[in-house]
Design the sequence.
């Protein structure tokens, strides 16, 4: 039996340096970095302007060390991420946000099969967008490179170049978004579903909308998302994957308990692996969770989560007993960044 030893040491250091170019007071609009939805960067107050906020900036450092020792060799590596951000109000309730990311990969041990691993450095424009709100926040419009998310983030939760509009009324809220992933650096492009995507960087277009309604501390929502594969493909090896997602979800708070639940179904067209035969996509998924908080020192909590996605034992055959006849039966293809290493990278 092969002996395998893998030591994973990860530590997260968050360093934020705050400076205000022309604002002499500190208020509740301080920047708190968020890797997912950027809620902290929305503008809420009519008083938000350059004269009251000035220029805000900071630095975020994320170091990570990995060590692997197995029968193939040894590899010790470290990754240092540095994100430099800046935020400035252009006019009342409108701001420009920029963030540049530098990722350095270094090595300490390279033996055996890992002897060819070399140090590398990647610089990327992480975020760059303008956001503005109108009518006391009832309408929010943003455009540029930013994080886009739908529902719990299971079908979409990542960066892209596009735009987003949110309209809130006394009864419901509607959010419409569209983005393109082909301008992201290949090394920082997590949307790959095919060998072509991984080799060239996924070139996909997304468009979707969410309608939600709040009642008694609960929120019910429905959403739809479509994605189009704009990547190249060989005539002899078809690989395009076009799909649509529809879902319904609920989330809320009941005294000391918070919860969420979301159901998703996927449809579309894809090619059978290794052929030019095109067939239907039929799959579904479910995501849920419960958090219960105790009124005790240190605020202990019990957190339970359950997720499920349909799968396919043999994508090369549409006659497999695990699939619906005439469909690809593909595993639910999700565009989420909620993986530890991807967040750190």
Sequence:
């Amino acid at each position: 039996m092969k002996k395998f030893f893998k030591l994973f040491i990860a530590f997260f250091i968050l360093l934020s340096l705050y400076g205000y170019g022309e604002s002499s007071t500190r208020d509740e609009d301080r920047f708190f970095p968020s890797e997912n939805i950027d809620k902290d960067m929305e503008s809420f107050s009519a008083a938000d302007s350059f004269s009251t906020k000035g220029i805000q900036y900071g630095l975020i450092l994320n170091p990570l060390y990995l060590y692997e020792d197995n029968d193939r060799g040894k590899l010790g590596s470290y990754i240092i991420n540095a994100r430099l951000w800046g935020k400035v109000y252009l006019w009342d309730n409108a701001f420009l946000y920029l963030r540049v990311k530098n990722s350095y990969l270094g090595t300490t041990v390279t033996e055996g099969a890992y002897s060819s691993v070399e140090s590398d450095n990647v610089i990327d424009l992480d975020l760059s967008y303008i956001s503005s709100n109108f009518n006391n926040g009832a309408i929010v419009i943003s455009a540029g490179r930013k994080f886009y998310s739908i529902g719990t983030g299971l079908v979409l939760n990542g960066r892209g170049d596009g735009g987003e509009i949110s309209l809130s009324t006394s009864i419901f809220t509607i959010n419409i978004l569209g983005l393109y992933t082909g301008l992201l650096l290949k090394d920082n492009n997590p949307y790959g579903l095919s060998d072509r995507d991984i080799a060239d960087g996924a070139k996909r277009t997304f468009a979707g909308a969410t309608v939600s309604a709040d009642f008694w501390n609960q929120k019910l929502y429905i959403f739809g998302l479509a994605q189009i594969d704009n990547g190249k493909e060989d005539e002899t090896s078809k690989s395009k994957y076009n799909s649509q997602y529809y879902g319904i979800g609920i989330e809320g708070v009941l005294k000391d308990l918070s919860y969420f639940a979301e159901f998703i179904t996927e449809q579309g067209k894809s090619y059978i692996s290794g052929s030019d035969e095109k067939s239907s996509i039929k799959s579904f998924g479910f995501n849920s969770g419960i958090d219960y908080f105790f009124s005790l020192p240190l605020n202990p909590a019990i957190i339970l989560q359950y997720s499920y996605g349909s799968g396919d034992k043999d994508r090369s055959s549409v006659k497999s007993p695990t699939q619906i006849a005439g469909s690809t039966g593909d595993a639910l293809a999700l565009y989420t960044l909620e993986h530890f290493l991807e967040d750190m990278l």
Summary: The chain has two domains: 1-128, 138-345. Residues 1-46, 318-330, 336-345 have pLDDT under 50 and may be disordered. The longest strand covers residues 73-91.
